[in-house]
Design a protein that fits this description.
Elements lengths: L1 H23 L5 H19 L5 H18 L5 H7 L2 H7 L5 H21 L7
Helix pairs in contact: 1-2, 2-3, 2-6, 3-6
Keywords: Membrane, Transmembrane, Transmembrane helix
InterPro entries: DUF2809
């Protein structure tokens, strides 16, 4: 179980680096960052709540990503101030896009499939 947590942590670091690079390197479509964001959230849930069923992690990840996207419709001064910071921008985004929801679905499903195929758990949930 501890080994799986380490695997998830390594994946999180790798995805973080790839996600930041996807925003810094011109020529990489913006949607790649959104897909990677969802992958990161999925593996983040797996890392923190390692005993959860993988399907539950999938649903929680989608709920989290969708909530963040819908929250972008809220324009409160203090929330706008947080979004203007680098970290706040990376986590909370900037503006609502329907296409981001599709990217989150793709990203969480991709992470879920990678998890099912390559990361073995004791109880194979």
């Amino acid at each position: 179980m501890k080994n799986n947590r380490l695997n998830y942590f390594i994946l999180i670091l790798l995805i973080l680096i790839l996600g930041i690079l996807s925003r810094k390197i011109s020529g990489i479509p913006l949607f790649i960052g959104d897909v990677l964001y969802a992958v990161l959230i999925y593996f983040g849930f797996r890392f923190i709540l390692i005993d959860l069923k993988k399907a539950t992690s999938l649903l929680l990840s989608l709920l989290f990503c969708f909530s963040i996207e819908i929250l972008q419709l809220v324009q409160i001064d203090w929330l706008i101030a947080i979004r203007k910071t680098t970290l706040g921008h990376y986590i909370l985004g900037e503006g609502f896009l329907w296409s981001d929801l599709l990217c989150y679905i793709i990203g969480t499903l991709l992470a879920f499939l990678i998890d099912l195929k390559f990361i073995k758990t004791q109880n194979s949930n």
